[in-house]
Write a structure and sequence with these properties.
It holds the Pfam family AMP-binding_C. By secondary structure, the chain is of the alpha/beta class. Among the domains are: 69 residues; 110 residues, GMP Synthetase, Chain A, domain 3 (2-Layer Sandwich). The strands form ten sheets. The chain has a seven-stranded mixed beta sheet, sandwiched between helices. The protein has a seven-stranded mixed beta sheet with strand order 12-11-8-6-7-14-15, sandwiched between helices. A four-stranded antiparallel beta sheet has the order 24-25-28-29.
Length: 729
């Protein structure tokens, strides 16, 4: 990649050849490039938009994409203009998006003189949605399959001052699983609810399940649960891959008025036991084994080791399992037989409950002690679906695919995003790291593909997605980690430069408080807007909010009135965790979230990690994520880095150690890397920042949800700095 300041007018045929084009292709490409640069000379954004749409193709070498993107914005001043734009919607795309249609239909009515056009007025609509959620959310619900059996007596009750978040939709009753399964509006019984494929069946047609078939399957499971004696309010765990049966069980538990306990399928027995104990789960749906990447990994044996209650065990391959079950446990077929005595086992009357009834218990990652048990009420699924409708543009006719697990919030989120919005849920029962997953995305004609940056980096490194047709994709979603520009650039290119919509939220929110959309231009690895109905603040070092629109960096906190957010924890003091010690602003105590964010001129946001990932280097606060973004680009041998602050054993200023993982085939000394990282950190961030040492690891330790275990790395880096030579890494 060329140096910063290298602009598009300096690109030559030789640069194109160096980036991977043949000499013959470079000549033709260069002529086309010169024409665009000449015609659009006054607009860097227009130059990049035309290059990305007219010249670059997914099969072009990635260094060519990098060369043209970075040189298009070679002299771009981020400090005054914000991040450079990676994607700009056409007026037609903006108008036809879900938010664009609201703006065209209601913009002038609700915004008055502030309304300009769908492409210009989203910031005003977002502020209006916070001030008037009682008007905004019903506009969204008009397009969703919600069934209120009893309507609320008001929208938000704030009469109880002890409840900072208020009570939303008091008096309303529904069953959110019924809403998922209802043939309402554009959804019909013949609509395709799920498309799926099992790993190893890449050459077989994608299988389909209609809405009526799914409703019948869910009803049969709900009837079987009732036949076993489960009743309203009982907690039932799910610990299995996110396949058709897992989604069926998830909806059935909620349809029956019970509560899902979400457990990731990668957890060891001890972690399973903790979650069962906290949630008081009375049964668990699981599998005999996990089939992923051509391997079979034990799961049922871990469930037994956890001393779980009644287990309902499914065969991973969909065939009869020869596994010997624990006394009292049931196979999937034995379980379903329990409903056979009914005259209509494929029908079930939903258990209608108040909005504050629990539907799901999810858990924080638990890397710093016992995980927080976060109950989702019926508000939270509605929030998930509304956010997806607004920020991911989910709608009838879409095919949504997000490789994840029901143990993490994205799993339930994508279920509600699809079914409540009338879209199809696409499920791949296997590893998302391999080409088989990419072929499923192609064959199912997925229109919205969700990812995490580490998954994108794995695809990019292996080249496994080469020459697949992902042109049906309208947008990508990205969450779970901080993205890099190169992650998003590569991903966007795979579908012919479709937008990557960054999402940032939290399990306890059930929502994204910053995100993207199809109305505004999007910048790679950045968020273009605050989440609809949210109000956020960025705090300065004195815990005072910076002025609105001011460019700044600090801890992001939330206004307490957030539809769908948690109001209690099962095993911790909710007020202490989220409110204690937080400042008041305009008469409201602000809600803690713990992310460090940067707001740019122009309204874009970037995440800089958790507040507990910050460090003090020479008296200056620094974000680990910010340092890592610089080091990740410092040398071609680097696959990823982690910035770790280490406290000397006898006290004193923190010292910065860079942990690094190298790409396969590279061998470079830690001393040489230290010099490279030091130069880049000093020149790109602050000349006072010193890289004390570099530690090279084969891989980084991570949690089951792929979050970096900084605590473990900190211990190893401290050994490197302060232990005797024989104990060094």
């Amino acid at each position: 990649m060329e140096e910063s300041g290298f602009t598009i007018d300096l690109v030559s045929e030789a640069h194109l050849v160096k980036a991977g084009l043949s000499r013959e292709d470079a000549g033709v490409f260069f002529a086309q490039l010169q024409a665009i640069v000449t015609q659009e000379r006054r607009s860097q954004s227009n130059i990049w938009q035309r290059i990305s749409k007219e010249l670059l193709r997914p099969w072009h070498p990635f260094p060519l994409h990098q060369l043209l993107y970075y040189s298009s914005y070679g002299d771009w001043d981020v400090s005054t203009r914000g991040p450079p734009l990676g994607w700009i919607p056409t007026p037609e795309i903006a108008r036809q998006s879900n938010l664009g249609r609201i703006l065209e239909r209601k913009g002038r009515e609700v915004l008055g003189e502030k309304y300009r056009s769908p492409t210009e007025s989203l910031p005003e609509l977002q502020r209006w949605s916070f001030e008037h959620p009682e008007l905004y959310l019903p506009l969204v619900w008009e397009h969703q399959s919600l069934i209120f059996h009893q309507h609320p007596r008001c929208f938000l009750d704030t009469s109880d001052e002890a409840n900072q978040g208020g009570v939303w939709l008091p008096g309303a009753h529904l069953n959110v699983a019924e809403c998922c399964l209802a043939a309402k509006g554009s959804k019909t019984d013949s609509s395709i609810a799920i498309m799926y494929r099992n790993e190893g069946e890449d050459d077989l047609p994608v299988r389909e399940i209609t809405l009526s078939q799914l409703r019948a399957d869910v009803s049969r499971v709900a009837n079987s649960l009732e036949a076993l004696g489960f009743k309203k309010g009982d907690s039932i765990a799910i610990d299995m891959q996110m396949n058709v049966q897992a989604v069926t069980a998830y909806l059935a538990i909620i349809l029956a008025g019970c509560v899902v306990v979400s457990i990731p399928d990668s957890f060891v027995a001890k972690e399973i036991a903790i979650r069962i104990r906290i949630s008081k789960a009375k049964a668990i749906f699981t599998q005999d084994v996990i089939q992923r990447g051509g391997k079979k990994l034990p799961l049922y044996s871990r469930v037994i080791e956890s001393k779980a209650p009644l287990a309902i065990v499914l065969p991973a391959d969909g065939k009869a399992s020869s596994l010997s079950l624990r006394n009292g446990d049931l196979s999937w077929d034995e379980f379903l037989v329990r409903a056979e005595h009914l005259s209509r086992p494929d029908e079930y009357k939903p258990v209608i409950q108040s909005m504050d009834s629990y539907t799901n218990i999810l858990f924080s990652s638990g890397t710093t002690g016992e995980p927080k048990a976060i109950p989702w009420t019926q508000h939270t699924p509605l929030r998930c679906a509304a956010d997806s409708w607004a920020h991911l543009d989910s709608r009838q006719g879409d095919v949504l695919c997000w490789p994840t697990n029901l143990g993490w919030m994205v799993g339930p989120m994508i279920v509600y995003s699809a079914f409540v919005n009338g879209a199809t849920l696409a499920l791949y029962n296997g590893s998302p790291l391999d080409r088989g997953f990419g072929k499923f995305v192609q064959d199912a004609k997925v229109t919205m593909l969700g990812t995490v940056p580490s998954l994108v980096r794995a695809w990019k490194a292996s080249g496994c997605m080469a020459n697949l047709d992902w042109t049906a994709i309208r947008a990508f979603g990205s969450s779970g980690e901080t993205s890099s520009v190169d992650d998003d650039l590569w991903l966007s290119a795979q579908a012919g430069y479709k937008p990557v919509l960054e999402c940032c939220g939290g399990t306890e929110l059930g929502a994204m408080y910053v995100g993207g959309n199809l109305v505004q231009p999007q910048a790679f690895a950045a968020f273009s807007t605050v989440g609809m109905t949210f109000r956020i603040y960025i705090l300065d070092d004195s815990n005072n909010p910076y002025p609105d629109e001011a460019a700044c960096t600090g801890e992001l906190v939330l206004h307490p009135h957030n539809f769908g957010s948690s109001s209690t924890l099962l095993n911790a003091d909710h007020h202490k965790v989220y409110y204690q010690g937080m400042p008041h602003f305009n008469g409201k105590q602000l809600r803690r979230h713990g992310d460090i964010f940067q707001r740019f001129h122009g309204g874009f946001y970037k995440a800089h990690g958790r507040s507990d990932d910050t460090m003090n280097l020479g008296g200056i606060k620094a974000s680990a994520i910010e340092i890592e973004q610089v080091c990740n680009k410092a040398h071609e041998s680097v696959q990823e880095t982690a910035a770790i602050s280490v406290q000397p054993p006898r006290g004193g200023p923190e010292e910065l150690v860079i942990a690094a993982v190298l790409k396969p085939g590279y061998n470079i000394s830690s001393k040489e890397l230290q010099k490279i990282f030091l130069s880049h950190v000093m020149s790109n961030l602050n000349p006072l920042f010193k890289v004390r040492a570099v530690a090279v690891f084969p891989d980084f330790p991570r949690t089951a949800s792929n979050k970096l275990l900084r605590r473990v790395l900190r211990i190893e880096c401290a050994k490197l700095l302060y232990s005797a030579p024989q104990s060094r890494l």
